[in-house]
Amino acid sequence: MEAIYLVIVVFLLILAVFDLFVGVSNDAVNFLNSAIGAKVAKFKTVIFIASMGVLVGAVMSAGMMDVARHGIMHPVNYNFHEVMTIFLAVMVTDVIVLDMFNTLGLPTSTTVSLVFELLGGTFVLAILKMHADPSLGFDDLLNSNKALSVIIAIFVSVAIAFVFGIIVQWISRVIFTFNYTKHLRYTVAIFGGIAFTCLAYFIFIQGLAKSPLMADDAKAWIVDNTNMLLLWTFVGSTIVMEVFHLLRINVFKFVVLMGTFALAMAFAGNDLVNFIGVPLAGLDSYQDFVANGNGDDSAFFMTSLMSSAKTPLLYLLIAGLVMIVAMTTSKKAQNVIKTSVDLSRQDEGDEMFGSSKAARSIVRATQDAGGFLGKYVPKSVSNWIDSRFRKEDAILADGAAFDMVRAAVNLVLASMLITFGTNYKLPLSTTYVTFMVAMGSSLADRAWTRESAVFRVTGVISVIGGWFITAGVAFGACALVCLVMYYGGFVAMFLFMALVVFLLVRSNIQYGKKAKEEGKDDVFRLMMRTRDPEIVWDLLTKHVSRTQSFVNRFALEQFNKIIDGLANENHHVLSKSQRELKSEQEQLKKFRRKELLALRRVPMEIAAERNTWYHLGVNSDSQFIYCLKRMLEPIKEHVDNNFNPMPQVYVDEYRPVRDKISELMERTEAMLSTTRFNEYDDVLSEADKLKDELSVIRKHHYDRMQSDHDVSNLKISLVYLNILQESQEFLSIMRHQLRAANRFYGN
Predict the structure, then answer these.
(1) What are the pLDDT digits (tens) for 379-391?
(2) Considering 465, 493, 518, which residue would you say is the last residue of a domain?
């Protein structure tokens, strides 16, 4: 039996490594997005500084390990088998849930995941134990007070972080403005001094004073002399910041990099328990059982877990190193960073999220409230405040999403809030805090314009909704897994272990395919980064060419699928085509927005000349989808209802037309992809002839319908008539697309 538990413990430790990779992929956004979004330094420099912070924070994180041991459950009333069942269920669920969210590119919370998984597993076993022994109550099995304080702290931190983000960023922007280099003489040293003092207090003074690595007399001295240390830290750091400013060293860049270190340190100190706390608690439980359990896993109760964790320094160092490797190599980390940076960037760009009814209502209510309050603010005050928020004066590094003032506020404020929670042993969600600080600061910075506010609010709602879903999914999934393991015994445990391995392998394969597809739109990223209008125009023509040629190929592919689906009565093909048309319609909206943003950056004379032809081409792309949907709808209904198949005479009559349409579409696609329109006149002429031919066939089909008195053929006759009509429209759209593209490229 000990051998079986040894295998489980080894698997828990292996999952701890996976969890470190998956969790850091998710949480790297917390301490990297501000420095990366503001482009304060090279990516390698930011990673190095964050790595040092992670390493220091990992070494100092031992005190947080108690959350996994007795923060949620009372282990004294659980035997060894029950505790190991809970720990294995938590780790299995945790890896799957976090990897799923990372694959979707949504920042979720490792803290929420861990807490609610522990809560779900403990809750379901508590119910079973209370049923078996009525003398036991929830308070005997569940540390409800601690669990409640942790949950409240997690969710209250969302509102606190958002509100403080708005207030602090608004004050900072009023002081420094977007053209912050002109307003540094008397303020930057004080700002830097306050920032450094806050970080020093929460990270070094409070952090070191409660670190298990500090000697007791040193801790006592720090506590007794805190006020003096704060005063001298503020005075000294303010002087140093003023010297930096006089030496033309960018103080904001220094604060951002210092904040990156501090936030990475706070992250590791707070969140390391989320990744390795449970496996190490399982290891301690196993060692205690081997030494004192006498081989009876159901009679040996885990009193030892009531004591505080004494995590060896070597384990913490290894965990820190694994986190650094994960942070520097994970493609998923970069994807989650992109989500957070995109939602908080200063300018417009590719909006990752669409519109939603809730977001529209929130934006409308906010605008109404702003308009109401604006009536009571003196005009002079309003004008002065507006003068401090002139975004056209923003100083942004090449490719930066926002400036260094906002980056500094994000990092300093998030570090303070997270470390404050850590020092009180409340595992605040670093994801919640940093994300909501970033959202609050971007709102205060007026980054959410009327053109982008609905999309940004939808994004925030989606991410926050994902967090709440994480809580529910983690609780329910872990409770279910724990229940199955409890009744299924070792067989169920090993089956779940095999399932985790399978899901992780499959998830990485699927994510690789998805990342490969998303990486294709590098042209748009280049358009947004360059400031040369001529280069933007050159890149835009390539982007439009690629989009329109793809739509042309896609339309032809779906056209043939729909016709084949009818001929073969294959409703699966038709259903798949319906889904693909809907998906492509959403993609076209995103591509149109991207290209419109780029069109605003091209030379004015070119934009004025080509604007009309661009929109005609885009409308043609959309019309292809609408035409195919109109063709598909009656066909799918006909096939789904198992009505009469398409007569062979119709198939033979339509086949030459279909082949000619395919040929013309292929020739059009070749011209669109190469932007060489050498067959332009021939294709248009042949398309006109084919439309006339379709008119003749349609007239013949009318006559055939009039003379055919077999009512059973009426439905398929109407479906065929619709195909002929939409085929004509399909050709007209192709002509419009080709004509618009020819004029757009200046031919």
Answers:
(1) 888 888 888 777 7
(2) 518
